[in-house]
Amino acid sequence: MMWKSIVYKEWLKIRWFLIGYTLLGILGIGYLFLTVKHGFAFSGGKNIWNSILFMGHQFFSPLKYVPLLGGLTIAIAQYFPETVNKRIKLTFHLPLRENKALLMMHAFGAVSLLLSFLVFFGMFTGFSLLYFPVQMVTDSIISIFPWFLAGFSAYFLVALIVLEPAWKFRLFYSLVGGFFLTIYLNSPVTGAYDPANSGLFVLTAFLSIALLFSAYRFRKGEM
Amino acid sequence: MEKISRYLLVFIAILTLAIILPKLYWMAFEKPVRKPFILYSCINDDFMIHRISEKTWEDTQGKQYTREEYEQKLPMMFEKQLITSGSMPDSIKGIALDMRTISKAKSFFRLKASEIDAPVPGLYPLFESQSGRAKLDLPEDFFRITWRIDFIEAATNKVLEEKSQLFSAALFQNGFSFPAIKISGISTPRKSADEGYFIVDSKDQLFHLKMIKGNPYVKKIEVPEGLKFRHISCVDFKNKDFYAYLFSDKNVIYILTQDDYQLIKWPVEGFDASNCDLKIFGDLFNYTVVVEAEDHIKAIALNPDYQVVKTYTETWKLKEELTEGKIFALLFPAQVSMTSDNSKFIRFYFSLSEGFNWIFLNILLMAFHFLWLFRRKVKVKNHLTDLGIVAICGIFGFIAIHFFPNKFFD
User: Which of residues 331-360 of B touch A (CB under 8 A)?
Assistant: First the structure.
C-alpha cells in the first residue's frame, strides 16, 4: 500500500513537467521529420541520402540536448521540492526501509523518463525507417543512443547533487558530473559511438544508485 | 548499498578526472610538432626539405637554398611558378616538358590512420560508367551488400527488385561470396570518370563492380594466396595508370593497374596503417612516398618502375620524452581519452604513463591522506580501500575520494 502512496506523491510532483516535456519532445521530433520531408521534396531523396552518407550531414543533430534537458527537468521537479524545508526527512520517517523508499522514488522518476524517451525513440526510429534504409537508421541510433544515456545520467546526477546537504560538496559533484556528461556528447562522425555505447551504458547504470550516497550523508546530518 | 554507491561514484570521478586533467594539461603545455615538407627532386636527385615554420629550404646534406632555388629544384611541383618567372627548363633527363605532360603525370594522395579506423557508410551510389554524358549524375538509388546486393531507391526507400536480382546474379556467377567485408570506390559524382567499386567478399576475394549501360560488370581480380586487404583507396588520377592504392593487413602498399588488373607491390617499408599518415606525390619522374609517424617522418623516392631510388628519415622526440611529458608522467599514472588521432571511433582510449615516476606522487598523496586521517582520529582500517585507491590511481583517486568522502562509514 505504502509504495502506491509514494508513487502517487512522485506522480503529483512530476506529472506536468513530464507531460509538458514529452509533448514538447514529440513536437520537436515531428518538426525534425517535417524538415526531412521538406528536404526530400525540395532537394530530392538521393541528395539527402548522399549528404548523410558521404558529407557528414546529421539530420538528427537537433535532438542532441533533448534527452539531457528531460533528465534535468524531471530530476529538478522531483527532488528540488524535497529540499525545501528538508521535506525528504518525512520520507525517511515512513515505516519503510529508508533506501527502499528512496530507490522507489528514484525508480519511478527513472521509469517515467524511460517511458518518455521510449516514445521519442519509437517515433524517431519509425519515422527514420520511412525515409532511410536500416543501415542508415542503425547508424543514427548508434549516434543518438549516448544522448539518451546522458539524459538518464543527468537525472541521476541532479538527484545526487540536490539531495547533498553541503554546498561545498554540491559544487564538487557538479564539477565531476558536468565533465562526466561531456563523454556522451562528443560530436563525431555518424556511428562513431559504436564501440563506446556498451561501456557508457554500464557507467550510466552505475550512476543509478548514486543518490543513495548523498541521501545517506543527509540522514547522517552532514552540513 | 550506500558504500557501493560511493565506490561507484569514486570510480566515475576517477574516470572523469583521468579524461579531463590530462586533456587540460596537454592543452596548456603541448608544443606542436612542425613536420617538414619533403619532396624528391628530379634535378639534383635528392630530397628537398621545406621547414615551413623556420622558413628554410634545404637538401638532405643541409645545404641551404633560397625559395626560388628550391622551387627550381622541384619543377614538377612548382611548374606554374617557374613558367611565370621564366625559369622552367625545356627538358629534364632528355624528356621534353610541356604543361600537359606534366599535369597528366601529377598525382597527390593522402591517407590518415583515422580514415581507416572509421565507420563505413554501408550504402553507396553505383554510377553509370558509360552514360555518354560529359558529367556524372548521382544515381537515384544506392546499393548495400548483405546476403545479396540490394539497390534502394532514395525517393521511395524501396528496394529495386529487378536491378538487385540482376546484379546479385552477376556477382554470384563470378564466385562472389556474400556478404562484402569491404566496399571501396569514389562515391562523389565530381570525378573524371566512373570506375565503380572494389569489393572484398567474405572469403577475402577481390572484385571489381561497375555498371555499364545499366548492366553489371563484374571482374574477379587475382590476388596472391592469403593476402588480406585492410583498406582500399580508389584514386582518380589523370594518367589512369592505376585504380587504387591497396593496403594489406601486413601494411604492404599495392597498386592495382588500370584495365589489366595487375597488383603491384610497392617496396615501401615503415608504414603502419594503424598510426601513420601517408602522402604520395607522383610526377613524371618519381613518386615521393612520405610516411608520417608520431616521432618520425620517412620519405621514400620511387622511380616510374616503382623501384626505390632514395630514402630519407628524420626523427624527433615524442612528447612523452620532452620535459612536459616527463612532468606529465610524474603527475598522472595514466590517461583516458574518448577520441584518438588515429581513429574516428569514440572509445575509452586508455594509455599508461611512460615509466613509473608517478609512483612517487601516489605515495606522497597516500601519506598525506594517511596523516589527514590520523589527525582526524578516525579508524584507519576503515579507510584502507581509499588508501589503496590513492596508491593506484594517484591524483585522480585522491581528488575522487575527497570529492566523495568516506565520512560516515567508519
Answer: 338-339, 344-348
Residues of chain B with Cβ-Cβ distance to A195 below 8 Å are: 345-347
| Residue of chain A whose alpha carbon sits nearest to that of B14 | A176
Q: Report pLDDT for A207.
A: 93
Contacts of A175 in chain B (CB under 8 A): 403
Say which DSSP state B203 is in: T
Does residue B140 sit at the A interface (CB-CB below 8 Å)? yes
Enumerate the β-bridge partners of residue A83.
Answer: none
- Give all domains of chain B, ordered by start, each with its CATH number: 2-31+323-403 (no CATH), 37-105 (no CATH), 108-315 (2.120.10)
Residue of B nearest to A143 (CA): B346
13-32 of B, contacting A, C-beta below 8 A:
13, 15-17, 19-20
Q: What is the pLDDT along chain B (410 residues), one digit of tens a residue?
A: 778 889 999 999 999 999 999 999 999 999 888 899 999 999 999 999 999 988 999 999 999 999 999 999 999 999 999 999 988 888 898 888 888 889 999 999 999 999 999 999 999 999 999 988 889 999 999 999 999 999 999 999 999 999 999 999 999 999 999 999 999 999 999 999 999 999 999 999 999 999 999 999 999 999 999 999 999 999 999 999 999 999 999 999 999 999 899 999 999 999 999 999 999 999 999 999 999 999 999 999 999 999 999 999 999 999 888 999 999 999 999 999 999 999 999 999 999 998 888 989 999 998 988 888 888 888 877 888 888 999 999 999 999 999 998 876 55
Does the distance separating the beta carbons of B338 and A173 come in below 8 Å? no
Report the alpha-carbon angle B229-B137-A192, nearest 5.
45
The closest alpha carbon to B197, from B261, B119, B125, belongs to B125
Beta strands across the sheet bearing B149-153: B124-125, B141-145, B149-153, B158-159
Residues of B in contact with A135 (CB under 8 A): 121-123, 144
Q: What is the distance in angstroms between the Cα of B190 and the nearest Cα belonging to chain A?
A: 13
Kindly identify which residue of chain A lies nearest to residue B155, measuring between CA atoms.
A45
Burial readout B161-198 (b: 16 or more C-beta within 10 A, e: otherwise): eebbebbbebbeebebeeebebbbbbbeeebeebbbbb
- The residues near B227 (Cβ < 8 Å, ≥ 6 apart) are B204, B248
CA distance B309 to chain A (A): 38
Judged by CB atoms closer than 8 Å, whether chains meet at B188 and A48 is answered as no
Q: Which residues of A touch B149 (CB under 8 A)?
A: none
Going from the C-alpha of A172 to that of each of B85, B190, B362, B365, the distances in angstroms are 65, 53, 22, 19
| E strand or H helix at A204 | helix A197-207
- Closest CB from B152, B338, B345 relative to A183: B338
Under 8 Å between Cβ of A6 and A100: no
DSSP characters over A114-158: HHHHHHHHHHHHHHHHHHS-HHHHHHHHHHHHHHHHHHHHHHHHH
Instruction: Note whether A179 contacts B20, CB cutoff 8 Å.
Output: yes
Helix (H) or strand (E) holding B150: strand B149-153
Cβ of A213 and B154 within 8 Å?
Answer: no
